[in-house]
Every structure is written in structure tokens, then in C-alpha cells.
User: Which sequence fits this backbone?
């Protein structure tokens, strides 16, 4: 869970048309569960140096302006970067981005096709 995800979710909740307090409370409860490791999401921290080193920041600086021209926030761009990082570096994670934004959702890793089970024939 990159910091940008927390910030962007908070921004959307704060700008909702109704039940802002209730949604903020529900999101706050999720954050506490993440912090307490009750749910299987974690704040993206162990690979921060790899993703946010000088070269990566320069890459973000070069890639983000065209995204901004398409109304993609820098927060969404960083969420995209984290999703791509996990999709490329791990076969054990399935990247899932919780959003209603189909453009951002497109950066999720593809769900692997299930391996069909075959019945063994009796001899």
C-alpha cells in the first residue's frame, strides 16, 4: 500500500458527496488493521529505496508531465509505479489496485489462468 494510495483515498473520501465521516472512519479502521498486520496489506516500505532512488525520481519527473496532461495525478502515477514494480519483481504477488478508475486499474497484473486438474485414470 503506497503512501500515495493512502493520500488519494483520503482525498476522495474528503470530497465525497455524502457520508464522509463514516467513510473516513471505515478507512481509518482499515489503516489500523494494516498497521497491526491484521489484514494482508502492508505499507510499501521495504523496497522504498529501490523505487524512490535518484534515478527513479528522475524517471517519474520525465514520465509524469504527459500523464498530468491527461489529468493523471502524481499520486496515481506513483501508485502505477508501485504496481509495475510488484508485477515485474515478484511471481508471488498478484497486483490489485482498489479503484474505480479504469485507467489506473489497467496497471494491475493479469490474473494467471487456473491450471486445470486432470483426473487420473484407474489402471
Assistant:
Amino acid at each position: 500500500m503506497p503512501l500515495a494510495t493512502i493520500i488519494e483515498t483520503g482525498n476522495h473520501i474528503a470530497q465525497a458527496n455524502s457520508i464522509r465521516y463514516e467513510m473516513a472512519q471505515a478507512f481509518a479502521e482499515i489503516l489500523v488493521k494494516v498497521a497491526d498486520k491484521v489484514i494482508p496489506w502492508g505499507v510499501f516500505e521495504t523496497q522504498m529505496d529501490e523505487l524512490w532512488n535518484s534515478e527513479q525520481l528522475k524517471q517519474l519527473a520525465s514520465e509524469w508531465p504527459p500523464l498530468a496532461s491527461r489529468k493523471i495525478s502524481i499520486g496515481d502515477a506513483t501508485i502505477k509505479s508501485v504496481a509495475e514494480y510488484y508485477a515485474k519483481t515478484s511471481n508471488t504477488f498478484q497486483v490489485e489496485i482498489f479503484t474505480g478508475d479504469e485507467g489506473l486499474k489497467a496497471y494491475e497484473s493479469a490474473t494467471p489462468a487456473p491450471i486445470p486438474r486432470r483426473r487420473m485414470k484407474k489402471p
